[in-house]
Specification:
The chain is mainly α. 76% of the residues lie in helices and 0% in strands. Residues 105-215 form the Phosphatidic acid phosphatase type 2/haloperoxidase domain.
């Protein structure tokens, strides 16, 4: 007869398996897209350029819309999202709901996602879009979009952190608002001429997928109970 697996070890195995499956599902299309970008796959490069030319042309011809694009670029900056959304919600979960492990998960996932996105930029080293008569300057590499990645990470992590504490209807409303925010941020990067379409798609895939994989590994985890000697000390 096969020995029964320890319940703690069994739970750990299930959590790690879920996390790995999620990570693979995200990593495969992301790696393929990065490869196509890195090798300058002509159909993708041409399509990206056509989209960025059309988007920036519209922005250049509409001053009011251009001001909106510039404003959204500021309020959706990664440090703004972390400072004014990710951190306050983490503190609320920690102190308001007394879920320290859940708050730690959120903080660690957001920090890890930011670092992975920065590393991926250095690996792919895609240059920023080149457009006629540029109306703004953007530094650094282009793939994946930092705005898209970090907004997707923060929004997804925040939604997952607060899910147990809000009514289902409210949570669904928050999901809709979060999705609209991320889509608007992605569109802003195109209209600003800061990123190609494949850059923002990669950012969303990385941000949402990383948060989902991390949460799959976190769900069901409990901190180890203190030993009798620790409790008596």
């Amino acid at each position: 007869m096969m020995p029964r697996m320890d319940p703690v070890a069994s739970s750990r195995w299930r959590r790690m398996t879920r996390a790995v499956v999620y990570a693979v599902v995200v990593a495969v299309p992301l790696a393929l897209l990065a490869f196509l970008v890195r090798t300058n796959f002509d159909p993708l490069v041409s399509f990206d350029q056509d989209v960025i030319d059309a988007a920036t042309g519209y922005t250049r011809d509409h001053d009011g819309f251009r001001r909106l694009v510039e404003t959204w670029e500021v309020i959706s900056q990664p440090f703004v999202m972390y400072l004014f959304l990710g951190l306050p919600v983490s503190l609320y979960v920690w102190f308001g709901q007394h879920r320290r492990t859940r708050a730690w998960w959120g903080i660690a996932t957001m920090a890890g996602g930011w670092a992975i996105a920065a590393l991926l930029k250095l690996l792919v080293r895609r240059t920023r879009p080149v457009i006629d008569d540029p109306f703004s300057q953007h530094l650094g590499f282009s793939f994946p979009s930092g705005h898209a990645t970090n907004n997707a990470i923060v929004v997804t992590v925040v939604l997952l952190m607060v899910r147990p504490f809000v009514h289902r209807t409210v949570w669904r409303l928050l999901v809709g608002l979060g999705a609209l925010w991320v889509v608007a941020t992605c569109a802003d990067r195109l209209f600003a001429g800061a990123h190609f379409l494949s850059d923002v798609v990669a950012g969303v895939v990385l941000g949402c997928g990383l948060a989902a994989a991390s949460y799959a590994g976190f769900t069901g985890w409990r901190p180890p109970a203190p030993s009798s000697s620790e409790r008596s000390s």
